[in-house]
Design goal:
3-stranded antiparallel β-sheet; 6-stranded antiparallel β-sheet; mainly beta; 107 residues
Amino acid sequence: MKAFEKVCSLNELVANSGVAALVKGRQIALFYLDDQVYALDNYDPAGKAYVLSRGMIGNLGEALVVASPLYKDHFNLQTGQCLEKPELSVEVFDAKIEDGDVWVSVE
């Protein structure tokens, strides 16, 4: 069974944008879209910086993505895979909304 950590209150997030959070010593990028929270590593492997939470979110075809603010590579919010460079990916974490709070599992 996965252990979830309470990260913040849902009303601390802004819909359709990202925010960075520190969870168990890891920088996590949280994105709140359509009543769902997506969590992935905040580290951009192409730009070698913790910036993904500052990226623009949208969709390319059927994929929900965040575009890195550095090189504009698109990372799938559900899988972490980079669309332009298949050799790159970021870790995706389970996230949930429960009783108005955001919970993330970094295991």
